[in-house]
Structure formats: C-alpha cells, structure tokens
Amino acid sequence: MDNAIKPQGCTNLKLRQLDRVVTRHYDQYVARTGLKNTQYALLSHVVRLGPIRPGDLARHMQMDASTLTRNLQPLAAQGLLTIGAGPDARSRLVQSTEAGVAKRAEGQRAWKLAQTALNERLGEASVVELHLLLDACIARLAEDAEEDVG
User: Fold this and answer.
1) pLDDT digits (tens, 9 = 90+) for 40-84
2) Is the pLDDT assigned to residue 1 strictly greater than 60?
C-alpha cells in the first residue's frame, strides 16, 4: 500500500487563488500611490531597463506584446513614461520620465511595506521556501516548454 501524499485538487485553481489573495494584499499598499500592481511592475522594469524596445520589454516581462502596449498607454498618458522613436523609422523605445522615476520610487516604498507585511504574516522562512519552490517549478516548466517546441 502506497502511503505517499498525493496531490489533491487542481494546481491551476490553487495557484490562481493564491495569486488573487496576494495581489489584493499588494494592491492595498500600492494603490495608495495611484498605481495598480501591474503598472508599478511595468514602470519598475522601464526605469531599470529603459530605454528599451517594446518587444524586448514584453519578452523580459513574459508578457504578450499587445497586452504590453495596452498597459503602457495609461502610464504614458500620466506622463510617467514616453514611447518615442527608436534607432530606425520602424522601431520604438520606451523610457521613463523624471515623474516616472519619482512615481516608481513612491511605488517601491509601498511595495516594500507590502512585502514586509506579507513576510510577517506568512513567516520569512515560509516565504523563502515558497520562492524556492516557485523558482524550481518555473524552471522545470520552462524546460518542458522548450522541449515541446524543439
């Protein structure tokens, strides 16, 4: 008789439930800056990596290019980033403005408060274990996806 613990339920559902709960937690903190979590993440990437071509940014964030374009528009409308001409007529470059750098710093302070509160709530050791498990799963699934394509 096999006494090993077997997975119960749908992993996708459990991950989506966790994602929603964690997102709500971060939203409570980051929303105080006037940004959504997704906007803060996007702005942070642009500040760190910019100026950057939209396609490269989408790949870096593992995001669909059309989704990225939709998400860039509100940040550009707020004057937090610009989408300008690239090195040739067909390319574009995304970069943050001074206001974008300042808003990212404000968002980063809120994000740090959210992260600290989450670490306290779950326990730092649990968060470390969770990160290790998630990183291992991501790496394994990425390997499988590459094998499926190749």
Assistant:
1) 999 999 999 989 999 999 999 989 989 998 999 999 999 999 998
2) no
Cα Rg for the chain, rounded, in angstroms?
19
* CA separation for the pair 54, 112 (Å, rounded): 27
Domains of the chain, CATH where assigned = 19-122 (1.10.10.10)
Extract the tokens encoding 50. 């910019």
User: Distance (Å, rounded) from C-alpha 43 to C-alpha 46?
Assistant: 5
Q: What is the pTM of this model?
A: 0.79
Cβ contact 82:76 at 8 Å: yes
Sign of the CA dihedral with 27 first, then 32, 36, and 40 last? negative
For the chain, helix, strand, coil in percent to 5 are 70, 5, 20
Give residue 29's identity as a one-letter amino acid code: Y
